[in-house]
Design brief:
It is built from 11 helices and 7 strands. With 279 residues, the chain is an alpha+beta fold. It has one domain. The chain has a 7-stranded antiparallel sheet. Helix 9 runs antiparallel to helix 11. The longest helix is centred in the first third of the chain and has 18 residues. The protein is globular, with a radius of gyration of 19 Å. The structure holds protoporphyrin IX containing FE (HEM). Protoporphyrin IX containing FE binds next to strand 3, helix 7 and strand 5.
């Protein structure tokens, strides 16, 4: 990746499952970076070859998807006027919107509760869209250890309180044994590969409510970089990551596929320290 890695943050306080929501400035809703062309080309190929994997829509999400498309085009016209806006009128609006943004787009609509009713997710981090469409926030997050006890209530109540005038963003990070953006498989394994083959992956997520349909749009923009490269230039990051891996509860290590990763990182850091002191 040629741009400096933009969201290199792991808490210095150790592992914690947290909402971590921050207010979002309107101008920062959808990010545009040096990977835009390459990521949109990959989206185009996935939409052609694996459409059933990357798109899921239900009638209940159609109106909100059309409103989302209006907002994506309005955003680009307002904040990125150089970007051409090309829309195929035959595309479902969630697909048309997704072709204009690097981020993946999900539309949540409230009936008895909030449900995922339309999505174009080309870059899932080890989950399957088809298993989530039509389901609730709690069902979507059911594989995550401790989500039910710690995040279910605050997340549902956040969705009920969100207003179109105030949007939010948050970060999720993980370490994976592949830099591939499109990982629609649910299986996770402990990375047993060489340290140089690990990757730090951050999802920058935004949440905003659309004023007309009152649907909530969830966007996910991925950033991936070699873990070894990041550690080499940022010692504080390396220390915080090691602490997070050491303090994450076993079920979380299991879910993330991190078992054994902390020990390997410790060895790498000890080796680097030896190199410095002996050199
Ligand atoms: C305030 C809102 C939200 C919070 C606090 C939240 C929190 C989380 C957390 C902590 C994880 C675990 C990820 C990891 O560390 O690997 C996760 C995973 C996930 N989230 Fe959310 N999330 C939110 C909204 C949403 C929405 C609106 C969707 C809609 C598509 C969503 C879809 C997912 C999916 C698909 C996963 C992966 C689940 C799996 O492994 O099967 N999240 N979320």
């Amino acid at each position: 990746m040629s741009d400096a890695f933009p969201y290199l943050h792991v808490s210095p306080k150790g592992w914690r499952l947290a909402m971590g929501l921050r207010p979002l400035e309107e101008s920062r809703w959808l990010e545009v970076d040096g990977h835009r062309d390459e990521q949109l080309a990959q989206k185009d190929q996935l939409l052609r070859d694996h459409r059933d994997v990357v798109v899921a829509t239900r009638l209940e999400g159609d109106d909100a998807s059309a409103e989302l498309l209006e907002h994506v085009t309005g955003f680009l016209r307002g904040y990125h006027p150089d970007i051409p806006i090309l829309i195929d009128p035959l595309d479902h609006p969630i697909i048309a919107a997704s072709r204009l943004a690097q981020a993946d787009l999900c539309v949540m609509v409230r009936d008895d509760t909030w449900r995922l009713q339309a999505a174009c997710v080309c870059f899932p981090s080890r989950w399957r869209l088809v298993s989530k469409i039509g389901t609730t926030l709690d069902e979507i997050h059911s594989p995550i250890p401790m989500y039910g006890e710690e995040l279910s209530k605050p997340t549902n109540s956040f969705f009920d309180r969100l207003q179109p005038e105030r949007s939010f963003w948050r970060l999720n990070w993980t370490v994976l044994d592949s830099p591939e953006l499109h990982q629609p498989i649910s299986a996770r394994q402990s990375p047993k590969v060489d340290f140089t083959k690990w990757f730090f992956r951050v999802e920058r997520q935004t949440l905003r409510q659309l004023p007309r349909t009152k649907a909530i749009v969830f966007t996910i923009h991925n950033y991936v970089e070699s873990l070894a490269a990041l550690i080499a230039v940022n010692e504080e990051f390396a220390r915080n990551l090691l602490l997070a891996l050491d303090t994450a509860p076993d079920p979380m290590n299991e879910y993330k596929g991190w078992a054994g990763l902390g020990d390997q990182l410790r060895q790498v850091l000890a080796g680097a320290a030896k190199d410095v002191t002996s050199g």
